[in-house]
Amino acid sequence: MIGSKTKLPAPGGLLSRSSNWILLISLSVILLGYVLWPSLRLFASGLKIQVLIELFGSTSSGNRRALYNSVWISIWTVVGSGFLGTTMSYLFFRYEFPLKKALVALAALPLALPPLVGVLAFLFLYGESGILPRGIQALLALDRVPFSFQGMWAVWLVHVYSMYVYFYLFCSAALQNVDRNLIEASSDLGAHPATTFQKIILPHLRPSLISASLLVFMISMASFTAPLLFAGTENFLTLQIYNYKVNGNLEYSAAVSVVLTLICLFFLLLIELNRRGSRVSTASKGSAPTPIAIQSGAGRLFALIAALSIIVFLALPILTIILISFVKEGSWTWQILPEAYTFDNYVNLFSQQDVAQPIFNSLRMALAATVANLLFGVAAAVFIVKGRLPGRAFIRLLSILPFAIPGTVIAINLIVTFSSPSPLAGGAILVGSLWLLPLAYFIRHIPLIVRSTVAALETYDDRLTDASLDLGASGLLTFRKVVLPSILPGILAGTLLTFVTALGEFVSSILLYVFDNRPISVEILSQLRLYDFGAAAAYSVLLMVLIGSATLLVTYFGGSSRSSIVR
Asked: Is 535 inside any structural domain?
């Protein structure tokens, strides 16, 4: 009707004005109360110049040594992981060689290993009493083991094993967009393969290499499990935080936490700046190049040996954990291989209540945290992408903040904040209760569902929403019938990753658990300290199966969602 004041919905107008305000207020309360406020409390407690000088001022200070060790190992982790991951992705992309399919299938295998389980596998395999050193000792009739992985280089090897996957995934995704015509033109002009890599491939990989390097450095700085079991007498920042807390010196623990958090925040800022600066079109004008088959006999032999070596390096830790999971308690002490095997370790997981309790505890806490993350993550992502209020950037920033806070620091944050009655806990003290650990899981994993859902929403066509609204559907019905089915793969990917990550979480758990809610990861460490290696390995295999299954589901529902979460 002419002169009618009927207002058509704005493009992508999924949220009404009242819905925008409800989401902004609700999300702000949660993020301010449980993410920002605990961090500010930690800084107020730990950012004291006198304490920092006392801890880091002396050249002989153990904390200064811990800072040096953490930075040193992180730099070399980036170098080692970058070399292995980038080399593997380029070789898979460019060449055809024996055992390539098997190697491609195993390349992302470390993703199925929770940090504690991976370290445990290396301990059983390469430690001083491990299978490989003792086997070589017996084979060569030596008086002592020829080698054993311990100290800084053992931590480095575990880090490379678990973190090269980031370089591999990032670079593999980038290489899929390389234009075949450019490579063929370079070859036709007589360029050496090294020149082609330097002039064509490397510039294309640079954003992915920078993102992976920053991410791996930050994750390595926050590493706790490998230093705990392999570092020996060497100090690391995460270990200092843990040791001060266990010894009752919360002020020192908070001060070291502040230093570690500032470093990780700096690298998160660099990641975000690199991510925004690299948002350029990567669509190629031609198809991906056909891999070159290695023809020479010497080349194929070298490729076969290299492929076998990498396959053994990737698969042996997992096979070792599976083997040890059948060991009868007390039957593996000085022997190279266990002498007695049993299925009881698996039977006991579900038949004995005290053995099964950590499993049920982990499942309950992981499920509770995941449901909370799912509701919060989808709401936050919808507001960030489709909201119409200025607070969207603020919500996005606080939603990724937990990604930069190491697990040990999140635990100290919560201890500092909830060691006294707090309105955020309904006036109760949460420290020492069953609720603090699920809260930690929720906070740690906020970025996962938020980022996977944001990535899905950013590729969603707003014209579908406009059409639904024009036909008279409400915003809620439009979201349920139109938007949700489109973004469901991203939501499911983030949800599964959240669940399995919470299921195997160790770093926060070791500082926050109580006996009644002890999770699987803490029980694994307890069994290891009791020398019941079979039980510890059986728990580990259960975690690997759950995480491996979820990884396959993530790949099925939305393979690109995993990389979008960490980018």
From this structure: no
Cβ-based neighbour number of residue 282 at 10 Å:
14
Non-local (6+) Cβ contacts of 214 within 8 A are 267, 270, 271, 274
Q: Please provide the DSSP assignment of 224-276 as one string.
A: -HHHHHH-TT---HHHHHHHHHHTT-HHHHHHHHHHHHHHHHHHHHHHHHHHH
Residue 185 lies in a domain: yes
CATH number reported for the structural domain that contains residue 308 in this entry: 1.10.3720.10
Amino acid at 372: A
Count the Cβ atoms, other than its own, within 10 Å of residue 153: 12
How many of the other CB atoms lie within 10 Å of CB of 248? 8
Provide φ and ψ at 4, rounded to 5°.
-65, 145
Q: Using an 8 Å Cβ cutoff, are 268 and 404 in contact?
A: yes
Domain-located, residue 226: yes
Q: Quick one: DSSP state of residue 279?
A: -
The angle subtended at Cα 70 by Cα 69 and Cα 76, nearest 5°, is 85
Tokens encoding 267: 């690298």
Q: Radius of gyration over alpha carbons of the chain, in Å?
A: 25
**What 3-state DSSP class applies to 540?**
helix
Q: Once rounded to an integer, what is the mean pLDDT over residues 397-414?
A: 89
Nearest CA among 122, 115, 220, 219 for reference residue 543:
115
Burial annotation 61-88 (CB, 10 A radius, 16+ → b, else e): ebbebbbebbeebbebbbebbbebbbbb
pLDDT band at 282 (very low <50, low <70, confident <90, very high): very low
Contacts for 6 with CB less than 8 Å, ≥ 6 apart: none
Q: Would you say residue 97 lies in a domain?
A: yes
Question: Taking Cα atoms as reference points, which of 275, 295, 291, 307 lies closest to residue 178?
Answer: 291
Neighbours of 240 (CB within 10 A): 26
What residues pair up with 422 in beta bridges, in sequence order? 428
Number of domains in the chain: 1
535 is written with which tokens? 């039980």
Rounded-to-integer distance, Cα 409 and Cα 130, Å:
32
CA distances from 414 to 175, 193, 253, 308, 446 (A): 42, 53, 13, 46, 15
State the pairing for strand pair 95-96/292-293: parallel
Domain hosting residue 127, numbered range: 73-234+290-324
Q: What is the pLDDT of residue 275?
A: 67
| pLDDT-based confidence at residue 473 (cuts at 50, 70, 90) | confident
The Cβ-side half-sphere exposure at 556, using a 13 Å CA radius, reads: 7
Cα–Cα distances in angstroms (integers) from residue 509 to residues 78, 307, 322, 333, 512, in the given order: 27, 37, 24, 29, 5
4: pLDDT strictly greater than 70: no
